[in-house]
């Protein structure tokens, strides 16, 4: 028996040859007659059409095209979900809204009977594959209007006006068995073409050093142990495109998700730390919102800001948001029970040093996305074509939205990435030069609480809703970017407020800009004693913030009061003994000084 005969028998076993009724004139080219009022579809023609459709799909896969698989028949759901998960595509259901393709250039809001908000996709697909063509006339009409090729199953009952719009028709009965066979062929076509692309990439790497470096980098990520992390220097990232249109398309795939669970109680502030005023009446949250809005305005993109509040921070956050009406900002609240679990977990992690590697990732990551999913805000983001989340776990006032990092992650298909601070401890000796990537122990890198996650990674995470979930097990192949100091402006202590409120940073159009007069790329090291730990005490002890442009380090302990117009340079240490008060007079300049009493202010003392 020939292979051809085996394939034909396989088609017959799926009942693909049984039509619904006597064929209309335009379908007779696929039929060999009728029996008992049903059209008998020619299996030879079905096989030819299957080959043509798979060949077309394979050609698009080689071009890295976008696909949308449309289905509503519940009998096919599990089959198509398994196929799309295997090949890395998504089974789109937003077609139910009507206009999901024709409205893609200008997303609109729709409301269904259940009052659920849905948004249309931003980027149109390169191909639409339909498994139940008779019920999808609206999708076919829209795809034909946009000249998007359609691959679809056709039956003898299909009207001529719909049939003419199918680019690659596959004549067959849409039985479960045949849909399974069709999906199996599509899956094998995808995997085969993807293997060919990977092989071509490996071959071209010999001639192209930049591609070879990317392949080597991905290989290193795959071989990293569970207790190790691959760290890539920020300087090694490819510069973002100078084409504003390409940058816009890149940023349109991004969503910023900020955690607003931290209270300012450790700084003596009664509200959420995000509502703490930093400079010129702007809070931490104001600066983050202004930064994202400036990016949207500069490139014409649409980066939404999602914020997860807790019951204890919700009211304070909403009060700040009153100053930002009509902006693409959405909030959702985490339940009190989940918050208690997070606090218990945080305490246990602090006490248990063996769980240091868990500090790379948010302990409440699963709870955050479960809350996001239950709020109904995740599905619209998927419908808009969003592909990556930027997670902000703490108050970082630097320019966190970086097209360079996003471009690197998308280009190399990296699902998750944490940003860490430059460090030399724990670096393993490898054959790579210092400026290349390196493998380090997770215990010797410090996360800046900024993380990137792909949408596919989030979908896998939501399937892990068990009690034994841990971040270190889920992110078994850790990847990090060695972030420069310019990307980290935390607000954790009053010493951070001193830096941000000084002349080292100024607020320009609502965003912080570093003073170009400072030669040192790193901010000065500042240690303030417990007398300055409370925000109110900090403000009373500093009549005005000193000039620190040329300051290297400052250490202050005890009852020390600062006047106005003070300039600090080099290394300065001021320590007031118990029961003693030191007052730094107005307009004084301190350069490389050690001060332990009021009398020391008059005479210099080298460090």
TrEMBL record:
The keyword Oxidoreductase does not apply. It catalyses: alpha-D-glucose 1-phosphate + UTP + H(+) = UDP-alpha-D-glucose + diphosphate. Keywords: Nucleotidyltransferase, Ribonucleoprotein, Ribosomal protein, Transferase. The keyword ATP-binding does not apply. Pfam families: Ribosomal_S2 (PF00318), UDPGP (PF01704). Its EC number is 2.7.7.9. InterPro entries: Nucleotide-diphossugar_trans (IPR029044), Ribosomal_uS2 (IPR001865), Ribosomal_uS2_CS (IPR018130), Ribosomal_uS2_flav_dom_sf (IPR023591), UDPGP_fam (IPR002618), UDPGP_trans (IPR016267). Belongs to the UDPGP type 1 family. Belongs to the universal ribosomal protein uS2 family. This is UTP--glucose-1-phosphate uridylyltransferase. The lineage of its organism: Eukaryota, Viridiplantae, Streptophyta, Embryophyta, Tracheophyta.
